[in-house]
Amino acid sequence: MAVGLVILVFGLSRVQAGEAKAIRKNPEVPVHYIRDTSVLLPRFRNVLAPGTEYRAEIEIEGKGTFTILFFPETAPNHVANFISLARAGFYDSVTFHRVIPNFVAQGGDPTGTGRGGPGYTIPAEFSNLPHERGTVSMARAFDPNSAGSQFFICFRRLPFLDGKYTVFGKVIEGMDVVDRIRKRDPQRRPDYPGDRIRSIRILERTPPPPPDPAERYPGIEKNVSREEEG
Known about the structure:
The structure is a single chain. This protein is an alpha+beta fold. It has one domain (5-229): Cyclophilin (Beta Barrel). 19% of the residues lie in helices and 20% in strands. It is built from five helices and eight strands. Strands 3-4-6-5-7-2-1-8 form an eight-stranded antiparallel β-sheet. The protein is globular. The termini are far apart.
């Protein structure tokens, strides 16, 4: 089963035909950590920790490194899935098998054909987050719940993908590296070599708690006390 290939090609042709319409609503502002791990599937239950921010440093052979910030509050299972696969070395030496200029760079298939995956699928976690430059989203087949390991990075704003693919992160550093990934179309030149992922390093960080308003504005407590006394 070609994951993401048929869907994304179809989407591109629609844009070229001028049929795509922007469906962007008010984008959600994702919290960069998970608060409730009960939403995780059993296989991912121990992958994410509450209150922890996760990033991935992805090194492309001969090109450099870029960094993804994950959105676990918006797409917890997709984030946990990617992190779990990355920690297991699943993505090491995997090719970006489909890189279309002004569209997306797609990778994550160990076979390099667009038909491979991890041997399981996960349910969709669609949101109002837009597909814009640097967005990291999950590829899938026609079934909305057919995502596995393949993902794509947007080169530009692609509104016709909004609400149809699970956005689970964004490139926050090194988008110039993504821009340099070797262009490749597996349909036209299946034997043409693509750039490979050398390694992925998962970074964890616990964000500092929000500042106490009383510390930032010492006069608040005094004013409140006076109002209560009055």
